[in-house]
């Protein structure tokens, strides 16, 4: 993960709490399956009194900003893309969450909608490039998207090859349970867009790393986090 690139820090002007506190609360909420009230309790244990509603507003405002900056700094997507869909509950009703990931598990895009049509299967069009290989299950809608958008790309259709996308759904399932479902399609889309940009950055494939390598990688990732949240430019505490 590259560091040291130019960063336009988000503005915290007018906020009573410091950038460190705001960024830490947003990180806690998106990294772990916590409710706003649980984040409030964790901060209280550290001697900081901040309401769960304030934390919610921080996450709504700054979560998408942090996620966007993290996406800008991630490596170029691999040449093998996986596309999959899963059911989620929104206000008690079943909706479809479509997710596109690359071979490294980086989330390329997501879409929440009520229908299971070919339009949703085209969500990778916004990437502005095509992969070498597209892997999906055998849903017919993927074939439509492939013919219209990526006719020259090799299309492999097998549920046994799509574990990368299916594994990417697991953290979402954890959050869905912790949040007791989503309240609206728009809210689910906004949260999951930010969540899929923040949470995976702090979930490296630890089973493939030595303990030293894991700590080094996480140090790099926290350094990038400090840069995109603006913490890195703040004076050190006395």
Protein described:
The chain is an alpha/beta fold. It has eight helices and five strands. It has helices at residues 19-31, 36-45, 52-73, 140-149, 163-168, 170-178, 185-198, 211-229, and strands spanning 80-90, 93-102, 107-113, 133-136, 154-157. Strands 3-2-1-4-5 form a five-stranded mixed beta sheet, sandwiched between helices. It is globular. The model is unreliable at 1-5 (pLDDT under 50).
SSE diagram, text form:
Blueprint: H1 19-31, H2 36-45, H3 52-73, E1 80-90, E2 93-102, E3 107-113, E4 133-136, H4 140-149, E5 154-157, H5 163-168, H6 170-178, H7 185-198, H8 211-229
Helix pairs in contact: 1-3, 2-3, 3-7
The share of residues in extended strands comes to: 15-25%
Distance between the termini: 30 Å
Profile the largest sheet: 5 strands, mixed
The value of Rg in angstroms is 19 Å
What is the oligomeric state here? single chain
Summarize the helix and strand pattern as letters: HHHEEEEHEHHHH
Percent helix among the residues? 40-55%
Global geometry: globular
Number of extended strands = 5
Structural class: alpha/beta
């Amino acid at each position: 993960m590259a560091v040291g690139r130019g960063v336009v820090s988000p503005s915290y002007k007018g906020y009573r709490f410091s950038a460190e506190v705001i960024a830490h609360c947003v990180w806690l909420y998106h990294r772990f399956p916590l409710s706003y009230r649980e984040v409030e309790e964790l901060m209280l244990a550290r001697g900081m009194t901040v309401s769960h509603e304030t934390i919610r507003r921080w996450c709504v405002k700054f979560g998408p900003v942090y996620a966007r900056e993290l996406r800008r700094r991630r490596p170029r997507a691999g040449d093998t893309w996986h596309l999959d869909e899963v059911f989620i509950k929104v206000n008690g009703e079943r909706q479809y969450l479509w997710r596109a990931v690359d071979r490294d598990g980086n989330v390329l895009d997501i879409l929440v909608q009520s229908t299971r049509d070919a339009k949703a299967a085209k969500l990778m069009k916004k990437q502005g490039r095509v992969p070498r290989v597209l892997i999906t299950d055998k849903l017919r809608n993927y074939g439509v998207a492939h013919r219209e958008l990526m006719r020259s790309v090799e299309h492999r259709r097998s549920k046994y090859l799509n574990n990368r996308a299916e594994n990417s759904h697991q953290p979402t399932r954890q959050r869905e349970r912790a949040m007791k479902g989503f309240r609206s399609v728009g809210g689910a889309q906004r949260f999951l867009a930010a969540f899929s940009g923040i949470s995976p950055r702090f979930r490296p494939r630890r089973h493939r790393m030595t303990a030293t390598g894991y700590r080094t990688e996480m140090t790099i990732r926290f350094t990038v986090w400090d840069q995109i949240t603006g913490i890195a430019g703040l004076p050190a505490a006395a």
